[in-house]
Amino acid sequence: MQNSPAQNKGDNAASRPLWREIFSARMGICMVTGFCSGMPLYVLIVLISAFLKSNGVDLKIIGLFSIVTMPYTWKFLWAPFVDRFKILGLGRRRGWMLFTQITLILTIGAVGFIKPTESIPLVMALVFLIAFASATQDIVIDAYRREILPDNELGLGSSLFVNAYRIAGLVPGGLSLIAADFFPWQYVFAGTAAFLVPGVILTLRVSEPVVRTTPKNLKQALIEPFKEFIFRKGIRGALLCLTFVFLYKIGDSMATALATPFYLDMGFSLSAIGIVAKNVGIWSMVAGGLLGGVLMLRIGINKALWLFGLAQMIPILGFVLLAHLGAKGEAGVLLLALVIGAEALGTGLGTAAFVSFIARESNPAFTATQYALLSSFSAIPRTFCNAATGFIVEAVGWETFFVICTLLAIPGMLLLFKVAPWGAETQK
């Protein structure tokens, strides 16, 4: 398999000044596409719920809306079509990017014109279209990012993407909610959709990535990505890779699945939780992601997986301390801020390395399908294992629960001996 031009660009990257790599056009693309990729998700999980609630929709029905976001979990099923077909005369990547972005602008903007109490099925249909278009946009943007970044820039590019993805939540989760107090919902959703316009402009201005080997028919698009992955890694290597993807973030993910109920049980008020969690948490995570991306330019992805994995795992023990002192009524807001800040910083570091690893394991010829498969597989713990956290806490208590979460992070770290040996960067 020949390398893409992006990979060849990375051959002499080490000779360039660090600031030129950080402020390159490719990093700007990662930031804009990250913002456009993240915002629709927050529209679904924050803005839609507020819209329905303010219009008097029953909470049970609002809860059912989570079902229509399933495309995010199953996006690998239609990723081969994105890998195979070109649309709108713009190529495999830009064509799908433009199509999904326009679809998102139209569907998000249309929601505000519907009265939920009179047309719940229509709102649900629009929400499903938003989720489907958003998941498809994720497929193509992930593929595009992998194809334009040389291997040595995957860490920084991925971290900038992830942080822009998170910051995008401030629009539907902040600005749009504030605007809803002053303007009709039609203007709120139209204004929110307008934040995706920069993505359309970017799509029309950037170049299509050049990948020498692409699927020539649908059969190749459906079969070759999996065949190539197994042939390149070997059956044992492929299974180890999938197991690692499943396990690397399971401890951290489970530890924060019931964060708000835990803080409440420790005696903290909702206002304290909101101020500390939303401010200390999000900005510590952003700082961790940015720091991780810059460090990976110099230490590589393998070493980052080791170091950032430890930074991700050790702070879970802070929750053990918080649970121990909270049970005695001795946990203060300062300790809460320190624990949340340390955990969020570690999560930001770990996520930067993890996303970079997934990108590196995806072959540029089949990026959309392989990346979608690995990212979907990594979401299984969040979807199913996190569902069991409430039962575990009920059975063993908070303190023991967080000890279990810490122990669950160890197998993923041990697999690094096989999938990402220290100092040995994997080459395709």
Number of helices: 22
Instruction: Work out the radius of gyration.
Output: 22 Å
How many strand elements?
A: 0
- Separation, N- and C-terminal Cα atoms: 8 Å
Mean pLDDT: 83
Largest sheet: none
> Low-confidence spans: pLDDT under 50, at least 5 residues?
1-5, 7-14
Give the helix proportion (percent range). Answer: over 70%
The proportion of residues in beta strands is under 5%
Order of helices and strands: HHHHHHHHHHHHHHHHHHHHHH
Shape label? globular
Which class best fits the helix and strand makeup?
mainly alpha
Transmembrane segments: 29-51, 57-74, 95-114, 120-140, 160-179, 185-206, 237-260, 280-297, 304-327, 333-359, 371-392, 398-420
Keywords: Membrane, Transmembrane, Transmembrane helix, Transport
Protein name: AmpG family muropeptide MFS transporter
GO molecular function, one term: transmembrane transporter activity
Summarize the structure.
The chain is built from 22 helices and no strands.
Task: For this entry, give a set of tags.
disordered N terminus; 428 residues; mainly alpha; 22 helices
How would you characterize this protein structure?
By secondary structure, this protein is an all-alpha fold. The chain contains 22 helices and no strands. Helix 3 (25-54) runs antiparallel to helix 7 (120-148), helix 6 packs antiparallel against helix 11 (197-205) and helix 7 (120-148) crosses helix 18 (367-378). The radius of gyration is 22 Å and the shape is globular. The model is unreliable at 1-5 and 7-14 (pLDDT under 50). Its main location: membrane. GO terms for molecular function: transmembrane transporter activity. The chain crosses the membrane at residues 29-51, 57-74, 95-114, 120-140, 160-179, 185-206, 237-260, 280-297, 304-327, 333-359, 371-392, 398-420.
